[in-house]
């Protein structure tokens, strides 16, 4: 809540993840953000350098595996998760157009995806987060993960710089810097599919 900063963009920082948001006409913004650590520090920063921070404890964070991809601008990146051998377009294919919600994870049925970032005159910081309830999953199996990017007029023929984060139980987060060389503009409408960015999740019931 920042009543003096109505309609302004802010950057949210949490455990290596960053994305752009914007306040409403009253200087407020409500967000639900996946926790990436048990002692979770969240910080927001405004363009003029002012910041605010808050910390909370999330004791259930070890129950989940999370994969994050973040970038700046109109890179068009997408996480695709194919749960338990699902094919594209099937019920277990989770991506931006079939994102599910937290209720699926709470029931142990499957994962869900959240996307963050606010467009504006300046290139926004964008992020996608895929969350899977590994400790409460209802069946064993494997989750296939890939990173995909649609070739558009905004990104064709250039490099997209991005970063991936992997959070698994109590293990230390794994961060990886990525540079994606997009095809030339005669490939607009095609998709670049990268299957070796993430290791697949192997799920064993507890």
How is this structure best summarized?
This protein has 206 residues and is mainly β. The chain is 2% helix and 45% strand.
Series of secondary-structure elements, N-terminal to C-terminal? EEEEEEEHEEEEEEE
What radius of gyration results from the CA coordinates? 18 Å
Strand order across the largest sheet: 8-9-5-11-12
Q: Any low-confidence stretches, pLDDT <50, length ≥5? A: none
- Number of extended strands: 14
Shape: globular
**What would the average pLDDT be, to the nearest integer?**
90
Secondary-structure content class: mainly beta
Enumerate how many helices there are, as a single number: 1
What share of residues are in beta strands? 35-45%
Q: Profile the largest sheet.
A: 5 strands, antiparallel
- Our measurement of the CA-to-CA distance between the termini, rounded to an integer number of angstroms, reads 41 Å
What is the percent of helical residues?
under 10%
Explain what you see:
2% of the residues lie in helices and 45% in strands. With 206 residues, it is mostly beta strands. The strands form three sheets. It has a five-stranded antiparallel β-sheet with strand order 8-9-5-11-12. The longest helix has 5 residues, at 102-106. The chain is globular and about 50 Å long.
Helices and strands in order:
Elements: E1 9-14, E2 17-22, E3 39-46, E4 51-57, E5 65-72, E6 77-83, E7 93-94, H1 102-106, E8 112-116, E9 125-132, E10 141-150, E11 159-168, E12 174-181, E13 191-194, E14 201-203
Brief descriptors of the model:
206 residues, mainly beta, 1 helix, 45% strand
């Amino acid at each position: 809540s920042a009543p003096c900063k109505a309609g302004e963009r802010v950057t949210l920082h949490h455990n290596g993840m960053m994305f752009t948001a914007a306040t409403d006409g009253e200087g407020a913004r409500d967000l639900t953000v996946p926790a990436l650590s048990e002692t979770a520090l969240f910080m927001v920063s405004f363009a003029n350098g002012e910041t605010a921070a808050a910390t909370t404890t999330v004791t259930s964070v070890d129950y989940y595996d999370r994969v994050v991809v973040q970038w700046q601008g109109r890179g068009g990146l997408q996480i695709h998760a194919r749960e338990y051998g699902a094919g594209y377009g099937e019920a277990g294919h989770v991506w931006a157009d079939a994102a599910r919600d937290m209720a699926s994870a709470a029931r142990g049925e499957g994962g869900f995806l959240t996307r963050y970032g606010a467009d504006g005159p300046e290139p926004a910081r964008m992020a996608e987060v895929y969350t899977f309830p590994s400790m409460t999953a209802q069946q064993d199996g494997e989750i296939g993960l890939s990173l995909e990017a649609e070739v558009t007029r905004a990104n064709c023929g250039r490099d997209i710089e991005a970063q991936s984060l992997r959070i698994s139980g109590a293990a230390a987060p794994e961060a990886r810097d990525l540079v994606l060389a997009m095809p030339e503009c005669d490939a607009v409408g095609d998709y670049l599919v990268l299957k070796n960015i993430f290791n697949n999740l192997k799920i064993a019931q507890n």
